[in-house]
Amino acid sequence: MRYILQHQPPQTQRNHQRLIYYSHPSHPRHNLKLLHVQKPYRCDGCRKVGVGTKYCCERCDFDLHKDCMFPTTTKVHPFFRNSVFFFRYRQPGSFIRYCDACGDDVRGFGYHCREYGYNLHPCCSNLPRNIQSENVELRLRGNVSLNCSLCHMRVVRRGVTGWSYESTCRNYHYHVSCVEKMALESWRNGHFEHREGDNLALANNIRTLQRIPPRANRFRNSMFMRIAKVVFRVIVSTVLCDPTAGIAGLLYSVLSS
Fold it and tell me: Ramachandran region of residue 135, left (φ > 0), alpha (ψ -120 to 50) or beta?
């Protein structure tokens, strides 16, 4: 069944007397309400993990990212010239399709280009092209010839290069998927539950993944840390659909310590 999407983003006005509910065709039995949470959840639309804002039905334990709650019927992306993506609740065919941005399989909601077979998760389709913060600029690249600064690999999966954020000096590259995996690993290890000693554990986890060369000079280390702060503070918020940036704020405070 094909749905014609007519959803509109929620208004910024808040009513403190009552909760505002929203309907969605993927969950017609109950309306969904907007919540802000600190613990990770799995979106029942795209099946990827999120944190921060979600639209949920507590009776059915049903959650949606904002990008899955309010998709557009069609979408274009500058990395795919002459391609038009159509939003689908389920991807066509019986074989596994992989997101051309992060390399993960597309198991639920997603955007599909009928003509060329490209696929994108809703969150991945909305990644910002440029990030500027603290005198650091990172640019989203669809095809980088150098290895990722985290995994030291050029591709995220066989046949899928994956998107990366690249520094303007072109010395640092971060796969979008590697940043996401770093955050999820920290959650699995319980580093986001704010227990005593968690900040140190999270800092060690992040710095291990950074893999700064032991013989690198002081200037290079300093530049690496400045760029890493921006990567983990901004990109994590975007990749995990956290517009409140709450979880990334914790990452930033850890890296600043």
Answer: left
